[in-house]
Structures are given as C-alpha cells and as structure tokens.
Amino acid sequence: MQENKKYTALIVDDSAMNREILKEILEDELDIVEIDNGSDACEYMINHSSELNIVILDLVMPGMNGFEVLKFMKYKHLQDTLPVIMISADSDGTNIEKAFDLGVIDFLSRPFSERIVTRRVMSTIRLFKRQKELVDELDRQYKADDIRIDDLTGLDYKQTFLNKVYTHLRGNPNDNLLMIAVDIDHFKLFNNYYGWEEGDKYLKLIARYMKEFTQRYGGLAGYLGGDDFALLAPKKRPELLAFANMVWNSDELSGFEVGFAPKVGIYEIKDTTEAVGSIYDHAKIALESIKDDYTKRISWYDHSMFQNVRDEFELLVDIKRGAAANEFIFFVQPKVNMFTGKIVGGEALVRWEHKDKGLVSPGVFIPILEKNGFISQIDKMVWEAAVQWLKKRQDEGYRAIPLSINVSRADIFTMDVSGFLKGLLEKYDVPVELLEVEITESSFVEEEDKIHHELRKLRDAGFTLLMDDFGSGYSSLNTLKELDIDILKIDMKFLRMDVTNIDKGVSILESVVNMARSLHLPTIVEGVETESQVEYLTKMGCTYAQGFHFYRPMPVIEYERLLSEEENVDYNGIFVSNLEPVHVREFLDENLFSDVLVNNILGPVAFFEVEADGTVRLIRMNEQYSKLIGRNFEPDGQESVEIMIDRVRPREHDTFHDLFQAAYHAPLTGVKDVLDFTRDDGQEIALQIRLFFLRKRPDVRVYYASVVKI
Ligand code: C2E
Ligand code: CA
Ligand code: CA
C-alpha cells in the first residue's frame, strides 16, 4: 500500500474555530478540505467523491444538519466509498444511535484529544479501505460467475458495462464523450397496459437500437436492469441526431402510446477521471428532471439540476420545522349541487402557513413529501384536524355535513391508513359517514394489489371512497368495476378543454359521465370555473361540482360562516342522477374494454365478431342498444347472437363490410358512418355507428360499436 501518499479529509462544520482545531490536529497526516455548511458539502461530495477518503461531519449545523447530510449521502450511495465520522459535543445516546443507523462509522466528541483524533481518523480510513478491498475482491470473484451479458437485451449488464466505460475513459482521456441514460416513461404502466411480453419486446427493441448505434458510431451500450439503459456515445451532432431518430421515429415504437416514449438524459463527460458511477448518476439526474413532462424527451445535465436536489433537501428540513411549529392547517373547498347552488359537502385541502413565506400551496411541497414518503406525517396532522373539526361542529349542535380528506398513494405504503382513520373516529367519537376519503386515480395503477387491499379495508370500515382526478391517469372501466368506488371526481383540467379542442374535451367528458351513470356511480366535476361550463355540464346531466366558479378553498372560519346560513346547505348529500340503469357491467367481465373506449361509451353499445369469411355476428349488447332495435333486453341472454347482415339493406352490404375493415385499420380512432338498420318489428331506422376494433381471437376479430339513432 502507498502509505506515504496523503489521504484527503473533508471537514464539515459551521464553526470556523472547530474546523481550525481539527485541521491543526490532522494536517500532518491528511490533506484537508473545509466546508462550513451541509448543502455545499453535499454538492462537493457529489463532484469530488473519488478524491476524498473520509468525511468528518458536525451533527448540529444551521440549514442542512448532519443527519440531513447523512441521508443525502445514503440516497446518493456515497457511503459505499466514503466513511463518515461524526463530531458532536452531544452525548445524547439516541442521536448517536440514529447517526449509526445512517451509516456513521465512528464518533468524535468535543473537546478533541489530539492523539485520539488522529488515530481514530487514520484507522477508520485504513479499515474502510481494507474492507472495501475485501469486498471488491469478493465482488470480482463473484462476478466471475455473475451475469456479464443480460439475457433479455443481450447488452453488457451493470458492472460489466461500468467497468468497460471505466477502461475506455482511462484509455481515451481526450475523447469528447457523453453519457446518455435512457429509460421508458411509465414502464411499469406499460407492462400493465400491454402485458409483460410486449414489455420485454420493447426493452429488446431499445437494446437493438443501442447496439446498432455502437456498431455504427462507436461507444458502449449497457443495460442496468429494469427499464434503465446507458450509452457512452461520441459527442458529435450527426451521431446524436441518428440516435434520436432511432429512438423516436422508429415505426416499431410508434405503435405505442406517446406516454410510453423512451426518454434520455445526457451528461457531457468533461473529467474522464470522474467516478463512473457518478458520471451515470449525472445523466440519470438529467433524465429524472423531465420524468413527468410529456413535452420533453431529452434533457442535458446542467449544474442547476444538482441545485434542485439540494433545494429539495432544504425544503424537507423546513417542512419538518413547520410541522413541529404546527404551521400546517387546512382550508375547505365546498362541493355544490349545480342546480341549486347549495353546498353538499366540503374537501379539506392542506395549507402551509409559513412563518416567513406566508401561505404555501400544496403543489409546492406535496410532491416532494410524496417522493420521500414523509407525506403521511403531514397527512396525519391534517386528517386529525379534520376529524377534530367534525367533532367540534357536532358538539356545537350543528347538522352534520361530510368533509373529505385526501390520501396519497405514499400514505398507503408508509402507514395503516384505515387503522389510523378508524382510530381518529373512535378518539373523537365521530360517525364514519362524515369523513370521506379521496384518493387519486393515478395511484391505482402501480402496485395495484396493495392499494386495492387498502381501499377494501377502508370500505369495510364504512368510509365513503372518492376516486380523485379521474381522467388524469390510465384507469379503465375494469378498475372502476373492481374497486367499489362510491363517487367519481372528474377533473376538467385533465380533459384539456382549451378553445382549440373544446369539442374533444366535451365529448370525452360526456362519455365518462355516461359511463359513470351506467355504472350507477355519482360524479363530481372539479375545476369548474365559468358559467358556460356550468351550462353544458348540467345539460350533460351532471349535478355536482367543485370549482372557483362556486367557491375557492377558504379558511375553516369562512366555511363555518357559509354553513351558518341554512339555505346555503343541502343536507341530503350526493346521489347518482336518477336515470335508468344500463347493464354495462356484463361487458366488463371480459377484458374487452380498452382504455380507448372509456372515451367512447355513449348510450347504446354492442360487440361484434367478424369471421374470416366476413360474417358479422352480434355477440353482446346493452339495454339501450336492445331498445333501439326493438327487443326485450335479457342480461344473461346469450341466444341473442345474430347475423348482422340481415338487418342491413342489400345495397349497403359492401359499405357495412368496408366499415369493419376500416375500423380494423384505425384501432385508435375507430370509424364513423351512418347506416339504415331494420328493427325487430321491421321498421327501418338510421343509425350513426362508431366502430372500434378491439382484438383478435382465434378465427375472429372482435369489435365494439356505440350507436346513436338519428
Ligand atoms: P385535488 O385533491 O385534486 O384538489 C383540488 C385542487 O384544485 C385544489 O388545489 C383546489 O384549490 C384546486 N381547484 C379547485 N377548484 C378549482 C378551479 O376551479 N380551478 C382551478 N384551476 N383549480 C381549482 P390545492 O389545494 O392546491 O391542492 C392541490 C393538490 O394537493 C390536491 O389536488 C391534492 O392532490 C393535494 N392535496 C391537498 N391537500 C392535501 C392533503 O391534505 N393531503 C394530501 N395527501 N394531498 C393533498
Ligand atoms: Ca382531492
Ligand atoms: Ca382532484
């Protein structure tokens, strides 16, 4: 070992005097870097981890404290290569324990004893190095049998790839190179949507492009597991364009929804001695920064991105302070009956009354809390405050009106939501009917089982469940059917009803509303802002709404003032519009519904099978459809299978067949035409038919049609 080579220690301490003392003790043995605050230290470690041998960290600092720094290091896997010693005058056992849990190797307490400090620091460095060598050695032995090439993609797997990158960078220090991280947006969802087989195909396809690229232009391609790929590529414009073209313009990929496009994050390698892991991390940070933005597919790393990671941490620290200072409260936004304008309930929406910044909206902090799993700490406080309020109203003798709370998917993964809520109701003796639970639609998709299980528990406990933000995600009718949701909240903003495509927005809304009605599901439309929206919503048959047009979220006190006028309130709550039930449920049993159809259920619907010889059979229909053709509806009647052509006039036979062909070739949009049909009683009616191809079965193609009499 090169014992004569100096090691480098990073001292992070806000006190200049402490740093000076330590420096004096250690500088004979070590090179010293001093930093006086947590966040700069994090930034320094990210960029220079390979030059450091140990970190000596103060526990108590303003801003980001020692614990936060440790969490950051853990999050960035810095402790894999960098040992940390903690300084503290604090002899509090729990703090020490906590620090050890976060990966601290040793402790130095003030005042420092010169001899002990030097020995401890040096022996920590040596022990850690020795241990790392052992681990690396084991790793090497292990990797001899480990996968080098991934079976599925045929690319170099993880360590093999990173090793090759390392060798390449050392061998070609003067090349202009980029590290490109590639992954597929919402890949888990993709698997849900198209199935694992298609998912594997997709991965293979990307792997193939990457291989082709390296064969043509040089560089290295690797697979890092899941949907993560990486490419070391020359920094040349034509090559990059070729890559972009492959990934985004290929015919093979264009069949999938845009939401599943591959995305890339690019990091320009300026220092070829930078640790390979850190090089990849930078590309990945760039990629993460555009994760949920449909409009961006490519992102170049820049320094501000690190700033973002750092800002997030500082915000977290501030949130914790705010929580301790009871700065989190809730506002209430009333839900109204649009026909009467009366209030039928309220929704509790968290607000942060920040000591310096004033009122902070949840959009700023909820996403970060969700990502970190801290959301449940805030939610528990908000939920308890909500139940306390219900209790207070009850005690003051007011007539009850329900209040809903918001539950995040992260809550479900970090706590026992139904247990906690039940506990609150018991503690304050509030009936379960008054506390409603909103959970957002997009949270139903990933890791469904866990969420479904929790929803079932909430239901069993008697809570009313609202599906929030319907239209924002990918929920299908199937999800609705499985989940025994009580109320559907449809958010106008997800229908993208700007002026240019208002018709499209309205027709999607209309079909969702119709579908909900056919499932006997009451709906609330959210985000209603104008009188004209109220007009077409009520025409459509919507009754309940929430939005700025009626009320903005308001302080509890103001809400109480509103409620105190009895004529403002409708104590009957929310009901499904009183229209005839349609037996759509039968259709849901077979996985026939695709999400495309959610947007197209308008009144009468039927399913057809088309045989190879062109014979069209009606295989199922709903009640409205059967009425249209003049037949008594039998929900279980499978004898209704009939040859369709008999209903169509001979001169329209070709048109009729062509329609199915055309629908087959337009699976996403379907086709539309008007045809004359003969009813059971012989009467002729003109039907506008919208036809969608659903899927192939052995020997037949299955279609779905929604029809309107004109
Ligand atoms: P959300 O549950 O969909 O709540 C509705 C949001 O839309 C609220 O935003 C509300 O102020 C806003 N809004 C209501 N009417 C209109 C309108 O007519 N036009 C427009 N443009 N917006 C309208 P807010 O209060 O900022 O909350 C944002 C999101 O934060 C909520 O969306 C919810 O997902 C989350 N959130 C709020 N409070 C909590 C909470 O206590 N816990 C959890 N986990 N999440 C919460
Ligand atoms: Ca909500
Ligand atoms: Ca919502």
What key attributes describe this structure?
binds ligand C2E, binds calcium ion, 710 residues, alpha/beta, single chain, 8-stranded mixed barrel, 25 helices
Parts with pLDDT < 50 across at least 5 consecutive residues: 577-602, 636-640
Q: Cofactors and ligands present? A: ligand C2E, calcium ion
For the sheet with most strands, the description reads: 8 strands, mixed, barrel
Helix coverage percent: 40-55%
Put the structure in a nutshell:
It contains 25 helices and 27 strands. The chain is of the alpha/beta class. It starts with 6 loop residues before the first strand and ends with a strand.
Characterise this structure:
The protein starts with 6 loop residues before the first strand and ends with a strand. Strands 12-13-15-16-17-18-19-20 form an eight-stranded mixed beta barrel, surrounded by four helices. The protein has a six-stranded mixed sheet with strand order 6-8-9-7-10-11, sandwiched between helices. Residues 577-602 and 636-640 have low confidence and may be disordered. It contains 25 helices and 27 strands. Helix content is 43%, strand content 23%. Helix 2 runs parallel beside helix 3 (66-75) and helix 8 (196-217) packs antiparallel against helix 9. With 710 residues, the chain is of the alpha/beta class. The structure holds ligand C2E and calcium ion (2 copies). Residues 468-469, 489, 491, 526 line the site of one calcium ion (CA).
